[in-house]
Amino acid sequence: MIRVAEVAAAKPPLAGRVDLKVENVENTVQAQINSLNNIIRAKPHAILIDAGSDTALNPTVKKACDAGIVVVSFDQVITEECAYALESDWDRIPAVLAEWMAKQLDGKGKVFVDRGLAGAPISARLQKGYEDVLAKYPDIEVIGYYNG
Fold first, then answer.
1. E-state strands within 1-148
2. Which helix (H) or strand (E) holds 133?
3. Could you tell me how many helices (H) and strands (E) the chain has, helices first?
4. Which end of the chain is more exposed for a tag (fewer CB within 10 A), N or C?
5. What pLDDT was estimated at residue 85?
6. Which residue from 54, 98, 93 is spatially nearest to 77, judged by alpha carbons?
7. How confident is the model at residue 13 (pLDDT cuts 50, 70, 90)?
8. Cis status, amide bond into 94, omega within 30 of 0
9. Which CATH code, of 3.30.9.10, 3.40.50.10540, 3.40.30.10, 3.40.50.2300, is assigned to 2-87?
10. What is the mean pLDDT of the chain?
11. Matching fold, domains 2-87 and 92-146
12. What is the CATH T-level fold of the domain 92-146, as seen in this structure?
């Protein structure tokens, strides 16, 4: 994800117009809040966030908006009204992946299911999407789950 942003910022139409700085912190809400507070103090024009919680970052995001900073959340979006949200289709994505996997396995086998980041807003949606499709394949057994 970071590499995609770096490549996009280096090519037209963004090249020379965007000064991209990436803050990659541990996957905890508190680490994101601390990082956001540091970023807000630097007064950027915009902040892009892949949130670890849909609500816990809201007060800090509101502080950024009140400082005139445009905030855009993506992937796992936040609910603060002042921020823009670009959400992926987390109902369709795991269904498409599970269907592909089932076809690759010819409808039988043992699999592990990735639930995404533990506690993240989309984790339950990911798991449900996989399980709904895999339920149509009685010869595919889910033997475990992991968060990744």
1. 46-49, 70-75, 84-87, 108-114, 139-146
2. helix 123-134
3. 5, 5
4. C
5. 94
6. 54
7. very high
8. no
9. 3.40.50.2300
10. 92
11. yes
12. Rossmann fold (3.40.50)
